[in-house]
Amino acid sequence: NNLLTIKDLYASVEEKQILKGLDLEVKPGEVHAIMGPNGAGKSTMGYVLSGREGYTVDSGSVVLGGEDLLDMETEERARAGLFLAFQYPVEIPGVSNLEFLKASVDAQREARGEEAISSADFLKEAKAACKKVDLPISFLKRGVNEGFSGGEKKRNELMQMLLLQPKLCILDETDSGLDIDALQVVAEGVNSQRSSDRSFIVVTHYQRLLDYIKPDFVHVLSNGKIVKSGDASLAQELEAQGYAWLQTEPTEDE
Ligand code: ADP
Ligand code: MG
Ligand code: MG
Hints:
The protein is α/β, with parallel strands linked by helices. The protein has helices at 42-50, 74-79, 97-111, 119-133, 150-164, 180-193, 233-241, and strands at residues 4-13, 16-26, 31-35, 55-64, 67-68, 82-85, 92-96, 143-144, 168-172, 199-203, 217-222, 225-230. The chain has a domain at 4-90 and 167-246: P-loop containing nucleotide triphosphate hydrolases (Rossmann fold, 3-Layer(aba) Sandwich), CATH 3.40.50.300. It has a six-stranded mixed beta sheet, with helices on both faces. Strands 2-1-4-5 form a four-stranded antiparallel beta sheet. A two-stranded antiparallel sheet has the order 7-8. The longest helix has 15 residues, at 97-111. The mean pLDDT is 88. Bound molecules: adenosine-5'-diphosphate and magnesium ion (2 copies). Residues 4-248 form the ABC transporter domain.
């Protein structure tokens, strides 16, 4: 039984087809790493799954927890348990982090038919989450991501993850990369939240994040589809060999 099933997914941005027959299956509790050359479509995959504006699905299907993900609005996808981290560092000045988090959690509980959590109980949970990710509790009062450093944004997203308890987390390490401290924060956060009912897709350009997060599967995404899959040792192989062996199929603009 898969948590996520992506079948023959084709998707475009600005009339340019980026995903070209993507297939991926993720079972509950699994950690999948997606690697691949710059421009392969790794980030596009995350955006398409999250329903980001401007990304058009041309064909194919995506099922999350038995439901048609592509049929859902962005907010519904989040409520269905999808969480996309790291390339959504939106700043929302004027809305406190605590308010934002509570609203997200409330919406999710409502969607699940659960009762709303009291403000006092939520504050307790949020403070505990701050402690876990090593953020001072003063961050709860600040505007969402307003003036946060790179590392603080990462910690804040991990805190969000802790509170939202998503079923599927997609982490996209930006090309600019994380410094070693932020990398360890992310890895510890992920490792502490790995469980039999939470899956991760970890997108990374380089192998180093996978020194700290041991994936069950590693996939190479190239030119919009997965061209190779293996276990964690594939990441080491790729680190040693690079992606030059993929150059047999050049993209149109190269
Ligand atoms: P990766 O994350 O693997 O480096 P991306 O998914 O960011 O790759 O990008 C894949 C391709 O899509 C690249 O050629 C990139 O230039 C293109 N692309 C991404 N976003 C846009 C956009 N908003 N408009 C036009 N092209 C885009
Ligand atoms: Mg890129
Ligand atoms: Mg990217």
